[in-house]
Amino acid sequence: PSQQTLYFVNATLGNPPQQFRLHLDTGSSDLWVNTANSQLCQEVPNPCALSGMYAANQSSSYNYLGSYFNISYVDGSGATGDYVTDDFNIGGTVLTDFQFGIGYES
C-alpha cells in the first residue's frame, strides 16, 4: 500500500456546528483540530482553510479540560495545545462531551 494515501471524513464540532474535514489516522489516539490563531493557520495562504478551524468561543457546548494536549508523529511533526470537550457529529451520530485536542502550535 502507498504511504501517500490519505483518508478524510466530514464531521462537525460544537453547537452550533463547525464544519471540519478530518484526516483519519489509525495510528493516533487523539482527534485534534487547529484553532484560527495557531501558528500553522497564520501562514499565507492559510493551510487550515480546507480542513476547518475550531473556535471555542463560538460553541455553547465547549468545555476546557486542561493545557496538556501534546501529540508527536514519526516524521517529527506534531501539535500542542488544550484538551477540551464538545459535541462531535459524524455521519449523523452526535457524541456529547467528546474529548479532543485543539492545537495552538502545530
Automatic annotation (TrEMBL):
Q: Give GO terms: molecular function aspect only.
A: aspartic-type endopeptidase activity
What Gene3D superfamilies would the database entry show? Acid Proteases
Q: Which InterPro entries match?
A: Aspartic_peptidase_A1, PEPTIDASE_A1, Peptidase_aspartic_dom_sf
This chain's protein is named Peptidase A1 domain-containing protein
Leader peptide range in chain numbering:
none
* Superkingdom per UniProt: Eukaryota
The record, for SUPFAM superfamilies, names: Acid proteases
Q: Which residues form the Peptidase A1 domain?
A: 7-106
Protein source organism: Verticillium longisporum (Verticillium dahliae var. longisporum)
The family annotation for this protein states: Belongs to the peptidase A1 family.
Which example biological process does GO assign this protein?
A: proteolysis
